[in-house]
Amino acid sequence: MSFGRNPHVAKAEAAEQKAQCAKDVHASEQAWRDAARQWERAADRETADERRQQYVEKAAAARAKADEPQQESGEASAIDTLKSKMSSLLN
After folding, report:
1. What is the rounded CA–CA span in Å between residue 8 and residue 91?
2. Model's pTM, two decimal places?
3. Cα-atom radius of gyration of the chain, to the nearest Å?
4. Would you kindly state where each structural domain of the chain is located, as residue ranges?
């Protein structure tokens, strides 16, 4: 670890990248939550108010993205249910 650097920033950025590349909804959600946690840890260690606020905002955005897949998966399951009902009606 280098001196004068906040190690949690790199960890948060890596978690965000992992979330964006995740193929599974649950893995993506978990990675976004991990990113939010790392951004909060980075904010706790930061001495500059401007960067601290920036990290807090990034943590909130990561939590918001973590909640998005749950809504999408609910919509996807509703669509799958409708498709199965339609196919049963047509047959």
Report:
1. 56
2. 0.71
3. 19
4. 7-90
Structure tokens given for 57: 């905002």
User: Is 66 in contact with 33 (CB distance < 8 Å)?
Assistant: yes
Q: Could you report the per-residue pLDDT of 29-88, keeping only the tens digit for each? A: 999 999 999 999 999 999 999 999 999 999 999 999 998 855 555 555 666 666 676 666
| Joined tokens for residue 10 | 């790199």
Q: What is the pLDDT of residue 72?
A: 53
**Burial category of 89 from C-beta neighbours within 10 Å (exposed 0-12, middle 13-18, buried 19 and up):** exposed
Angle, helices 7-21 vs 25-45, to 10°: value is 170
Give, in order, the Cα–Cα distances in Å from 43 to each of 30, 46, 59, 74, 78: 20, 5, 9, 33, 39
In angstroms, the CA 58 to CA 36 distance is 7
